[in-house]
Design brief:
Layout lengths: L20 H5 L5 H9 L10 H4 L1 H12 L4 E5 L8 E7 L2 E7 L5 E5 L14 E3 L3 E2 L6 E2 L5 E3 L18 E5 L2 E5 L8 H13 L6 E11 L3 H8 L5 H4 L23 H21 L6 E3 L7 E6 L30 E6 L3 E5 L3 E11 L2 E11 L10 H26 L14 H30 L1
Antiparallel strand pairs: 1-10, 2-3, 2-5, 3-4, 6-7, 7-8, 9-10, 11-17, 12-13, 13-14, 14-15, 15-16, 16-17
Helix pairs in contact: 4-10, 6-9, 6-10
Pfam families: Rieske, Ring_hydroxyl_A
GO molecular function: 2 iron, 2 sulfur cluster binding; iron ion binding; monooxygenase activity; oxidoreductase activity, acting on paired donors, with incorporation or reduction of molecular oxygen
InterPro entries: Rieske_2Fe-2S (IPR017941), Rieske_2Fe-2S_sf (IPR036922), Ring_hydroxy_dOase_asu_C_dom (IPR015879), Rng_hydr_dOase-A (IPR001663)
Length: 453
Amino acid sequence: MTLAPEQKRTDSSTSGPAGSGAAAGSGGHGRTDIDRLINERVPGYSLAAPFYISPEFFARDIEAIFASTWIFVASAAEVPEAGDYLTIDIGAYSVIVIRDDDGEIRAHHNVCRHRGTRLLNDLSGSVGNIVCGYHQWTYTPSGELISAGAQAPGFDRSCFSLRSVNLRVIGGLIFICLSPTPPDDIDEVADVIEPYLSGHDIAGTKVAAQSDLIEDSNWKLVMENNRECYHCEAGHPELTCTFFPTYGYEPDEIPKRLQPAYQRYLDAEEQLHADCDRNGLPYALVEELSGRPTGFRIERAALDGKGESYTMDGSAASARLLGDLDTFVLGRASLHVQPNMWFHAMGDHVVTFSLLPLAEDKTLVRTTWLVHADAEEGVDYELDNLTTVWLKTNEQDATFCERGQLGISSPAYVPGPYAPTESQVDDFVTWYIERLKAHREQRTVQLEGAERR
C-alpha cells in the first residue's frame, strides 16, 4: 500500500558578507555575475540571495550539479520485477529507470530515437517493451530498438537504441549520472558504504509507503535544513523522541543533570557495538562531505527509548527483521550523499529520502519506507506507526524551508554565520561551490579546445 502523494503546500544583523536580496532580486544574472558570486563565497556564512532565488543560478545548478554528479533516484525494491520502471525528471531531462528481462536495472533517456517524443509519461508502472505512443517505435527494457515500422533500405536498428544513462546500484540503492563522464570516485564511495547496508538486504525489501511533498523552497535550503539539528529540539518533537537528551553536547559540556542520560547513551552505544560486531555491521563514522566529487557521510548510532526504530517510543515498527539480522536493537545506520539523498536503516525497516529540484523556489522531497518483502500490513506493521515520525518531521521541515525562502527573498537579507553545530551545512555549501568551480573549469577547457580546432 502506498500513501497518496501530498499536494503542493500553500502556507507559506547587518554584519557579515554582502549579498542582500535587494541586489539579488533585481534583474537577471549572466555568467559573469554568477561566476563573481561563486568566487566571492565566504566560508562559514550562508550563500548570497541569488544562489537561492535566481532562475539563472537554478539553470547552473541543473547543469553543474544535477547533470554532472551522481544522483540518488530510488531503491531496487521500487522496480522489483522485469519491466517495472520509474521515470525521473531532472530539469529538462527525463530518465527511465527499469529492470530488464535479465533482472538488471538500467537507465535510459526518456526520448524516442525517431523524432524525440517522450516515451513513458507515468511516474511508475510496468511494461513488456517500451513503445513510443507516436509512431510505435518499440524498445526492449534493455534499450534495444526491435521495431520501427517500414524504413528505408539499409536502416540499421542497432544504431538507434535508447541513449543510456550511467547507473550504479550500491547496497540496493540506485544512483544515476547524466554526464557521459561521471565522477569516478563512486567506486571508492561504494566500497565504504556497502558494508553498512548489506546486512539490511535492501534488495529483499518491498515498498510499504511512499510520500511526495512539494516544498516552496530552493533545493539547497532543503539540503541545508537536513544537514543540521540546531532546530530539532524545538522543531521536531516526534523525531527527538528517539534522540538522547545529550544529543549535540560535547562530552565535556554535558551538565550534571544530564549525566544519567549520558551514561544511558554510553551503555546503549556499547550494546550497539556488540550487536553490530555479532552481525558483521560496521558502525564507525566516515565523513567526507567535501573535497571530493561524491561527498558522503555514514555512521551507525544508538537510538533512545527501546532503541529499535524511528517510532514514537523507539520500538520496532515492523515485526519482521531485515536480512539475516538477529536483533532489532541496531540503532540507525544513517547515510547522506551530496547533493540529494539521506537515508536511515534500522533492524526492522529502511527509510530513504531524495530531493529533485523543480524550480528555483520549488523542490520535490520523496520519502520511501521499505520493509521485509514478506511483511504484511496489518499483521507485521501498521502504516501509521511506521510513517508518523517522518511524515510529521517532513511537514515541519517544509515549513522551515519555505519560511527560509521567503526571508532570503527579502531585500533585507544578508548572509549570516553558521553555528558550530551547523558544520555539515558549511561542508555541503563548500562541496556545492567546489562542484560549481569544477564545472566552470571543465567548460573553459572544452571551449578552449573547440577554439583551437
